[in-house]
Amino acid sequence: MLRGAERMVHILGCRFWGAVRGSQIFGAHIFCRRVCGAELASRGQQSQGLCRTVPPAPPPSSSCRACPQHTSSPGDPSAMVSPAIALAFVPLLLTLLLRYRHYLALLYRAVLRLWLRDRLSGVPREHRAFQYLLAHAVPGDPRHVLSTFDRWSCRHEHLSCVGPVKGRIVERLLAERAPQRVLELGTHLGYGAVLLAAGLPPGARLYTVAVEPRHGAVAEKVIRLAGFDERTVELIVGPTDAVIPRLRQHHGLAQVDFVFMDHRKCWYLRDLRLLETHRLLAPGATVLADNVLFPGAPHFLQYAKTCGRYRCRLHRASLEYFPAIPDGIAELRYAGDGDSAPGGDTGVHRVPH
Q1: Which residues are annotated as catalytic?
Q2: Is the pLDDT of residue 328 over 60?
Q3: 291 in helix, strand or coil?
C-alpha cells in the first residue's frame, strides 16, 4: 500500500514537471521564431542552443531565451513568454492535486507522519497501537478489540489492516463456507487473526503466519487479549515461502479449507503456487486476497483467471480507512488440479461503504 501511494505521488510530480518543461520549450520556440527568425533544431535540445540563425540575422540587441548567444533585455515583454506559458499550467497542477488528494493524504498519514512520530517518540508504532488497545479495549471481546483498532487507525495513526468494510466481506464468506482449517498469510498486529478467529465455526482452528518477528510479538498479545488460546489460533513466525512447505510436517496441517492473504502483494502469486505445489488446498477451498486493486496484484489476478483451477470473483470495496480510494478483495474457489473451473472469468460484487 505505501509503495502504491509513493508511486502515485511520483507520477503526479512527473506529469507536472513534464507539463512545465514542455511549456518552456514551446514558449522558447515561439519567441525564437518571432525575434530571431530562427527555427528550433529539436524541442529537447534547449540546453545545447535551440536556434540557428537564418539570414537575414537580427541585430545582437534582440533577446532570445533559447539562444545562448544573445542576452535578455529586462524591458522586453517577449522575455515573459515562457514563464507566462508555464503559469498557464497552474490550473492543471491544481486539478491534479485535487484529483489525487486522497492518495497524498494516504502518503502523509501512512508514511510521513508515522516516520516522524517514530523519530520523536522513540516508541515503535506497533507498541503505540498495542498500548492504546490495552487502555481502551475490553479483554475477551473480539468485536471490541477490532473496533478499538479501527478507532486508533481513523483518529490517530494509520494501520494497514483489513478494516471494517472489507472485514464484513470476510465475515460473510467465513459464515458461508464454515471452514475447519483456516490459514492466514501475513497477520499485521493480529487484526486479521482476530477477525478470522471470531468467525470460526466450533472446532475449527486458525493458523496465522507473521512474516516479521516484531509484528508477531504484538500479534500474539492481541490474539490472547481478544480471548483466543493456542488451541484455536496458532501463530507461526517466519517468511511465508519457508513456512508453507513445512506446514504439513511441522504443524500437522494436511490441507486448508480457507486461505486469507494480506501480506506483500508481490508474494501472492508465489505463495499460491506453493500451496498448489505442496497440495495444501482442499477441493473447493476458498482463497481470499486483500488489496488486489490498490496497491494491486495484477500477476496474481491474471494467473487465477487463466490457469483453469479457480472460479474467480472480485468484491469491490474501498481501501481501509480511506473510502475515496477504490480497492477490492479477490475470491478464488479452488476446483482442483487439472480441472477446468466453470465460469472461470471474474465476477464483480460491489460492497457498500
Answers
A1: 262, 265, 290-291, 320
A2: yes
A3: coil
